[in-house]
Specification:
Chain lengths: 314, 230
């Protein structure tokens, strides 16, 4: 591996928190193996100033009049990697990141190393520690010189700002046939603040019972703490919360200072989503619930009694 | 009823190594594929498994409502083998739609990329156009709900927000064994040089249990004075 192309998602014209972890990965990878890296901004047609000072030689943006679809960005990445035979690809392990990264890996038949948490340089070529399935972690080494990496958003810390600036270039992104297109407007699924940046998250599960109680108790406590609302898969499936709030293996991964898990059992599927939270509080009426094994503080109580009291007293 | 004979839907199952955890995810994909088939009133759902580890998954898909199944027999159960197997099946069966489960999330876009067809991720509802050449889906992804449209053939990844399909009766499971299950041997796939090696494997580091507090007051006190998070 001699070169790395790094997918960058912007939020509010800055590098998104998840992409910052990917940049930090690129920097560590560059130090370990002496590679160069370039950026490719995936969701904007410009490269803001703030993106240019993280040590990338080049910063590419799509030369397209309207925002490219994941298929079109993947197509551009594929073209780039077909012409640059030593280039690997990395990006954030977010839904939108994975939708591009995995597509490129599938197109080019490249090893896809998901949820990378650390780089371990042993003998010769580097190996990567990554999350696999629910509760397994693997140390893997791609064969064949290059790979596609998705980077766990809570790994690698903050990237370093460099003195030099990236050269901004536009990358031709073709309008491709093999793409799904959006019809009609977007609808925002949750009014709560962004889970990715929330310092406090209150998550509710099946035990809340109905949507009204969920909103009043989980939403109420989140509001009182100035935090965001989240949900388990079970809560989403029985229709008392929205899928946009889902935390876990198939939802979002978060790392707040305080994660309060109320009325949920604590399946591996869910707990995988907040493993890096600083403090976890569990409230559940079943003293044997698995969630108590991962919580820093546990309260054995019915959520319908404990949450109103918490909201009142905090 | 739409005049769209014959409409073939491919439902790859257990392609992430056939681990038990992905079963619920596959169930949703097969259920959505069958629901679309039943709505169209014509067509066929073909369950596809790659690797012997996928046999259980393929049988479950038949019980769930798939019309027939193909199992590519190889010892391999990695992504690369799944890719090669699906490419072969896709060329042979020429489905109009490929429906995949959401777990793990990389499998849908990976397969769509390999097949070079459009990808629709996080579908909670899908609808086929009158001419059966376009699929429109309501998708929920990253806090947004949007409608995505793609020309067929295309791949749809179902949302994990869809309710789990109901448990099956023993009768349905036994009865499904009468459905056609084609076994294809795949020495070629078994011989594929692997593109990564696993050096070691360990359980993910878990959080350690903390302490149980006796009341809401104690909890507030601990969060304020010990943990300093509120």
């Amino acid at each position: 591996m001699k070169h790395l192309l790094v997918l960058i998602e912007l939020s509010d014209n800055r590098i998104s928190p998840a992409s910052l972890a990917t940049v930090a990965f690129a920097q560590e990878f560059a130090r370990a193996t002496n590679i160069d890296y370039d950026f490719l901004v995936t969701n904007a047609n410009t490269v803001p100033d703030s993106v240019q000072s993280y040590g990338a030689a080049n910063a590419f943006h799509a030369a397209a009049s309207i925002a490219p679809t994941p298929e079109e960005i993947a197509d551009a990445g594929e073209q780039f990697m077909r012409s640059q035979k030593d280039t690997s690809l990395a990006g954030p392990a977010t839904s939108s990141g994975i939708n591009i990264l995995a597509r490129v890996a599938g197109k080019l038949d490249l090893p896809l190393v998901t949820h990378v948490r650390s780089i371990e340089s042993g003998d010769g070529s580097p190996a990567f520690r990554c999350d696999f399935a629910r509760n397994k972690s693997l140390l893997v080494r791609p064969i064949g010189g290059r790979a596609v990496f998705s980077i766990a958003r809570t790994a690698f810390g903050r990237p370093q700002v460099s003195v030099g600036r990236s050269v901004v270039k536009s990358l031709r992104v073709n309008r491709v046939q093999e793409t799904a297109r959006q019809v009609g407007p977007d609808e925002l699924l949750s009014r709560a603040s962004d889970l990715q940046t929330a310092r406090v998250i209150v998550a509710g599960g099946r035990a809340l019972g109905d949507g009204v109680a969920f909103e009043r108790l989980i939403g109420g406590l989140a509001e009182k703490l100035g935090g965001a609302t989240a949900a388990t898969g079970a809560a989403v499936q029985i229709g008392i919360s929205q899928s946009g709030l889902l935390i876990g293996q198939t939802g979002q991964t978060v790392a707040p200072d305080l994660y309060t898990a109320a009325g949920l059992s604590g399946s591996d599927q869910h707990t995988a989503g907040f493993r890096d939270a600083k403090i976890v509080v569990a409230i559940n009426s079943n003293p044997n619930a698995a969630i108590f094994r991962t919580a820093d503080y546990g309260l054995v109580a019915d959520v319908h009694q404990a949450l109103p009291e918490l909201i009142e007293k905090i | 009823m739409k005049k769209v004979l014959p409409f073939k839907i491919l439902a790859p199952v257990a392609i992430a190594g056939g681990c038990r955890e992905t079963r619920a995810s596959d169930d949703r994909a097969v259920a959505l594929a069958c629901a679309l088939r039943d709505e169209i009133g014509a067509g066929e759902v073909v369950a596809a498994g790659i690797g012997r580890a996928a046999e259980e998954g393929v049988l479950a898909a038949l019980a769930r409502g798939a019309d027939r199944a193909i199992l590519i027999e190889t010892e391999r159960s990695d992504r690369q083998a799944a890719r090669a197997g699906l490419l072969a099946l896709y060329a042979k069966e020429k489905p109009r739609l490929v429906v995949v489960g959401p777990d793990p999330p990389e499998i849908g876009p990976y397969v769509a990329g390999a097949l070079n067809i459009p990808q629709i991720i996080g579908a909670v509802d899908i609808d086929l156009s009158e001419a059966a050449d376009t699929i429109t889906a309501v998708c929920e992804l990253e806090r947004r709900r949007q409608r995505l449209q793609a020309t067929l053939p295309a791949l749809v990844v179902v949302s994990d927000a869809l309710p789990s399909p109901p448990l099956l009766s023993l009768y349905t499971i036994v009865d499904a064994r009468k459905k056609p299950l084609e076994r294809v041997s795949a020495a070629k796939i078994t011989r594929l040089p692997p593109n990564f090696e696993v050096l070691s494997e360990m359980p993910t580091e878990r959080r350690r249990p903390g302490k149980i507090v006796g009341s809401v007051d104690e909890l507030i006190e601990a969060l304020r004075c010990e943990a300093h998070v509120i």
